Amino acid sequence: MLPAPRTRLIIADDHNLLVLGFRDLVSRHRNMEFVGSAANGHEVVDLAARLRPDVVIMDITMPLCGGIEATRRLRKEVPETNVLAYSCHNDSPTILAALRAGALGFVCKSSHYSVLMNAISVVALGKRFIDPAPSDPVLRGLLDDEPNVSPSILTPREREVLLRVAWGFTNSETAAELVLSTKTVEGYRARACEKLCLADRPAIVKYALMAGWMEEQPV
User: Fold this and answer.
1) Residue 40 belongs to what domain range?
2) What's the whole-number average pLDDT of the chain?
3) Which of 71, 134, 181, 208 is 20 to 30 Å from 140 at the Cα level?
């Protein structure tokens, strides 16, 4: 029987000692193979395009081009490569930014090496992994698969209404902002939720976070 193919890995980090440590760690794992490293986002995108690794371990903070922008580019240019973001910052905005950019997982640099190894294995399979260290309940909810319905099926008005719901506007406040009747707003909200299979406001907030809408202020 042929051995199972090994997961091919690239790490993007501008700290050489950390890269060397990661390479040594992976070399001791029979199911993983270290194939290259990059010191900034531009380098990792170019390297991944040439080597086509299974997973890129992406530092969030790097010079010239950071991990968030590099992740966005990778998802467009090398979509078969999955991204596992990692950082010394484990706050909600950092993690959500990485996930919105297209990373499948996130690991804190302070976590035990076993967490990183587990995360690599999970992300290599195309599944989401979020470091168990952060306790934010919103992030814990993101462990579930994100909605697979594209927001492009919404009309502009339906999107405007859902954005305001996510930001905490009531139907009456939304109606006043958009110069509509409350009944009309309720109709837009109901149709949008039906299209996206969203049951309640928490589900709307979660969808808005993953779609990147929460970076927008309602106007």
Assistant:
1) 7-141
2) 85
3) 71
